[in-house]
Specification:
Radius of gyration of chain B: 25 Å
Distance between the termini of chain A: 26 Å
Oligomer: heterodimer
Number of strands of chain A: 3
Largest interface: A-B, 33 and 35 residues
Helix content of chain B: 55-70%
Strand content of chain A: 5-15%
Largest sheet of chain B: 3 strands, antiparallel
Strand order of the largest sheet of chain A: 1-3-2
Distance between the termini of chain B: 55 Å
Order of helices and strands of chain A: HHEHHEEH
Radius of gyration of chain A: 17 Å
Number of domains of chain A: 1
CATH class of chain A: Mainly Alpha
Structural class of chain A: alpha+beta
Strand content of chain B: under 5%
Structural class of chain B: mainly alpha
Number of domains of chain B: 2
CATH topology of chain A: Arc Repressor Mutant, subunit A
Number of helices of chain A: 5
Chain lengths: 130, 202
């Protein structure tokens, strides 16, 4: 299991990217987008975000990575959080997108869609060979 | 001991270790992080049934070690605070955390520490000059100079270079070096955070 952010923090910029590091970087970059996308429909708390990511995508998600990432996205002004009392009696911390977060998420999503569509065209022959 | 209190103890001890690892992070943020994880552990362990010790074990294992989790929270939190406060002490504390996880952080820590020490010495020399005649910039050999802060006495063999001008020069050089060091450290922090995260809101 990749501990994505921790690996990233230990990776020096000068290192030449090996295939593994490339995969780690790709996963890390897409995890941020996936979290922002999961909140597009409205506020969710940590465990709901984790479940949404697990059921809605093939991303391997480490719980120990998602919570620090949520706190970082909040520090960057992309998310805001609020405590809400649950029916079960314990409070839950809900996250939602700020206007800047919404703007950033849609910017990232449209880039991703354009980028992956053109890359898929280029990759199509490689898939057929297998 | 009942099963419930045993389970509670497991959760508490994990969260205590997390709290220990978050030292330096603002109390308000620490409480927020600890309570969020408590809520996660309790809800996930009780998911669709009774909260058992084994279930708690597995939830805690999935979160990873509390020390590593704390380090992930704390590094970015302290660097973000360094960026907003800009005080040398806060900057050094953030960079110290960063140095624990990467070589580039370690280099920035060494350079910043040396920078602050040089800047601080000049600044201190300027402030101490009126109080102690031993304080000054001394030429003590053909190519040797010493900035004395009052501990050593070069008056017998040395030749004082600046005299009372040490006060304005020390304040300017000291203040300037401290400012340059802060600029360098904040620039490095900004680059590190940008490279590893998303852009700051503009």
């Amino acid at each position: 299991m990749y501990d994505i952010v921790y690996c990233m923090a230990r990776t020096l910029p000068a290192d030449s990217p090996s295939p593994d590091k490339w995969e780690v970087q790709l996963r890390k970059g897409s995890l941020e987008l996936a979290i922002l996308a999961s909140l597009w429909g409205g506020r969710l708390y940590g465990l709901e975000i984790l479940r949404r990511l697990e059921s809605g995508s093939d991303l391997i998600v480490s719980e120990g990575t998602v919570y620090p990432l949520l706190s970082r996205l909040k520090a960057l002004g992309l998310l805001r959080s609020e405590w809400v009392e649950s029916d079960g009696g314990h409070p839950r911390k809900y996250y939602s997108l700020t206007p800047f977060g919404k703007h950033r998420a849609s910017e990232m999503a449209s880039f991703w869609l354009r980028f992956s569509a053109s890359l898929n065209k280029l990759l199509a022959p490689l898939g057929k060979e297998k | 001991m009942t099963i419930a209190s045993q389970s509670q103890q497991k959760i508490d001890s994990y969260l205590d270790r997390l709290r220990q690892g978050l030292r330096g992070v603002r109390e308000e943020d620490t409480r927020d992080i600890v309570e969020e994880l408590r809520s996660h552990i309790v809800e996930k362990a009780a998911d669709g049934g009774e909260m058992t010790a084994a279930r708690i074990e597995s939830v805690l294992a999935q979160l990873g070690s509390p020390e590593e989790l704390a380090s992930q929270f704390a590094t970015d939190n302290l660097l973000a605070r360094a960026q907003s406060s800009r005080a040398p002490w806060t900057i050094l504390r953030g960079v110290f955390r960063w140095a624990k996880i990467s070589v580039s952080g370690f280099l920035v820590l060494i350079i910043s520490t040396v920078g602050y020490m040089i800047g601080g010495s000049f600044f201190l020399a300027a402030l101490l000059k009126p109080l102690n005649p031993k304080v000054g910039l001394w030429k003590i050999g053909p190519h040797a100079y010493s900035l004395a802060l009052g501990m050593t006495d070069h008056r017998m063999h040395g030749h004082e270079l600046l005299g009372w001008f040490l006060i304005p020069v020390g304040l300017c050089v000291g203040g300037g070096t401290i400012m340059l060091t802060s600029h360098f450290a904040l620039w490095s922090i900004r680059r590190f955070r940008e490279e590893h995260r998303l852009r700051q809101p503009s």
